[in-house]
User: What shape does this take?
Amino acid sequence: MNSVIKSVAYTLTHAPDLVIQAGTTQSTERIVNPDGEYLKALPGALRSFEDAVNYPPNQAYIGGMTPQQLAEIPMPWYENGAESDRFGKFGEIMPQEELYLLMQICDCFDLVLLEAEYSEKAAKLTESHPLFSAEIAARIKPGVELEVIKNEVESNGAEGLYHGGKLVGCVKKAHSIDVNLNAHVILENLVSKATSVISMLHLVKNSGIDPAVVDCVIDCSEEAVGDMNQRGGGNLAKASAEIAGLTGVTGYDLRAFCAAPVHAIITAAALVKSGTFKNVVVTGGGSTAKLGMNAKDHVKKGLPVLEDVLGGFAVLISENDGINPEILSEYVGWHTVGSGSSPQAVITALVTDPLDKMGLKITDIDKFSPEMHNPDVTKPAGAGDVPESNFKMIGALAVKRGEMERAQLPEFVKKHGMVGFAPTQGHIPSGIPYLGFGREDMLSGSITRAMFVGKGSLFLGRMTNLFDGASFVVEKNSGVGDTGSISEEQVRSLIAETLRDFAKSLGGE
Amino acid sequence: MAILANKKVIAIGDRDGVPGPAIEEVVKTAGGEVVFSSTECFV
Assistant: This one.
């Protein structure tokens, strides 16, 4: 039987100082234009934690408001935030202090140093956090003198950790000459690990699952963990699961640029459907490199730096319980080597080919979730409204296939699409952001099925000019679980459905 | 179309728009010479 989407968690982590420190737009600028106006103006354009919490798309991402509610707020959204809670029904928005502490908690090699006073203050903050258990808090190490940190940064190749522009800690290099273990790489990997851990902790809470019964974790984030002998050796999945308390799991990393989460969910669904595992977690932490990716345009236009949060998510895929929405493993979409790279060829491979196999029309999919980038970020940077472009292309193919009239295209975009609400963190916006709301919409019966589409830019690695992508369809549960037994409520529903069909057939005669 | 005839062209395609190889084909058809082509991801 098909596996199901049992639970979903989404987290954001506010990291304004890491925008300056670790975002590639900024590190590139420090090399090519170190005295330029942009780097001087950047600190003044960073948002406070409160602004990041109140930002409507961030609230939609953690489940504080629905995409429909977000669509009703006039753009630009950064001007129309309202006081909000850092915790939403899917997860939370974590402040930078807690991130640094969580990085230290995730550090198994004494590479993260925090200044004593700062560490103490951050540790106090976490005392009220519902998911920082005593076991996790016990991993916090004593703080050190600022002079020790300064010496590591100035003389030993450590990366500084800053808060409000002030040095408060550092990440040391893990090897004297191996570039794959230098401080920059260790910083990136620890951030990815920490944001994956917090996402999995929320997933355990949301699902109520006993961590001991999770069998496997697949990490689909963006970083390569390894050394000079194997740059992408891994394994962030097990490394993160260890801290999150999932002690019974095996796991591995799956990389496919931004399409990795969709590939990972397809893989996890197949592993559960085949009976190899009963419960698989797909997790993805955030990417420091992408922080402030479009900030040059934002700063130039007088906007705040909107790309100041790290994204994270975790999904629990389990055996069919007869209730939760099913992943239709037999009808996944693949972009093949021979598919071609024009937008039309890509959408054909990812959307219409699997639908043809299912005997469905484009309009039979209630909601599409392709690249869900927040347009508040992309439009001022000249990259347009990415989700809207995807919905238009899907709708155009429906017109071409004779499944609807051209005049219906604007209505199609509205009805079968939604506004983008995910941070531009590469793999994070790629299909996955709607999985939480989509699951709820199917459980409530407001929609029957949704398609999730991820795309990956393989050409960026300079090994091929090829494009990549994958898709899967999630459908309302048919009501019969793996146990073979069905609930009283499901029996009632089946009888009602049969009677309705019978009445219809009488009426027809 | 004539504006590209006998011109050297650098083609930068967009992952979510028109990819580099597609621009290359158009340029070649229009009589231009592609000296560099790539597709980039802007998001």
Remarks:
- Residues 20-29 of chain B form the longest helix (10 residues).
- The helical segments of chain B are 20-29.
